Amino acid sequence: MDLTTVLGIASGFLLIIIGIQKGGAARSFFDLSSIFITVGGSLAATVVSFRKQDIKNVFSVAAIAFKEITIDYTQTIEQLISLADLARREGLLALDNALNEIDDDFLKRGLQLVVDGIDPEIIKEILETGIVEIGERHKMGRKLFDQMATFAPAFGMIGTLIGLIQMLRTLHDPSKIGPGMAVALVTTFYGAVLSYMVFMPLSAKLAVRSQEEMLHKAIILEGILAIQSGDNPRIVSEKLKSYLPSSERDKVAYVRGRTLTGEEAGSAL
């Protein structure tokens, strides 16, 4: 579980609750009708805006923001360097034996195309299309939360208007104006909290996850094309390390026949 997501949302709500408690009127911030209008209205509008399949995927999409996902770019680059070394020493067909040891489906698919002797331009087109498709799927997940972030304040305002209309009917009784106004504003409060504390942060986290995966796929694509073209493993290493921040590049080292990581890499350099 990604603690930054959980702790961020939880601490945000906790600070809001503490602020409410300090005011000594916590009960006035709870209104069941306002919850129905804000939450129910936002969900209903979202259902209208998307396809059935997109709505069914909302929980799996949201789960990505809460999962602890770590992409080891260094390990991927070292794996590609090793494959480049194997291809240089034994030929591209030798990669066929290495496919069973590869867990990444995208990398395995690309190497299979290389082993099958597919033209480099076609391989690039196929893999780039796959990357675009992944990006579009990620974009749809973010769009869903972006829409909910837009709808929540809008339905909060609708709830406020409903409350104001109901309050205006009791203008003959000044004692009801204050409580009525408070209830009317609660829906706006709910909408703002849902939008800025839940939906927008989740969308932002999904965007980060998408950028990480797109970078990972770009590294793999570059490595596969370099392997097919018969580049020297050291050249492959330099090409792929350019995708990493300068602080991470020294963690990747190449020695003929194998790659080094961690402390070994540091000593080799």
Structural summary, described in words:
It contains 12 helices and 2 strands; from the N terminus they run αααααααααααββα. With 269 residues, the chain is mainly α. It has one domain. It has a two-stranded antiparallel sheet with strand order 1-2. Strand 1 and strand 2 form a beta hairpin. Helix 7 packs parallel to helix 9, helix 8 packs antiparallel against helix 9 and helix 9 runs antiparallel to helix 10. The two termini are 35 Å apart.
Topology summary:
Blueprint: H1 3-23, H2 32-49, H3 52-56, H4 58-66, H5 73-90, H6 95-98, H7 105-115, H8 120-168, H9 177-228, H10 233-241, H11 246-249, E1 253-255, E2 258-260, H12 262-268
Antiparallel strand pairs: 1-2
Helix pairs in contact: 1-9, 2-8, 2-9, 4-9, 5-9, 5-10, 7-9, 8-9, 9-10
Tally of extended strands?
2
Number of helices in the DSSP assignment: 12
Radius of gyration: 27 Å
Mean pLDDT: 83
Identify the strand order in the major beta sheet.
1-2
Strand content: under 5%
Identify low-pLDDT runs. 255-269
Number of structurally distinct domains: 1
In percent, how helical is the residue content? Answer: over 70%
Shape estimate: elongated
Task: Please give the alpha-carbon distance between the first and last residues.
Answer: 35 Å
Q: Give the ordered list of helices and strands.
A: HHHHHHHHHHHEEH
Biggest sheet details? 2 strands, antiparallel
Secondary-structure-based class equals mainly alpha
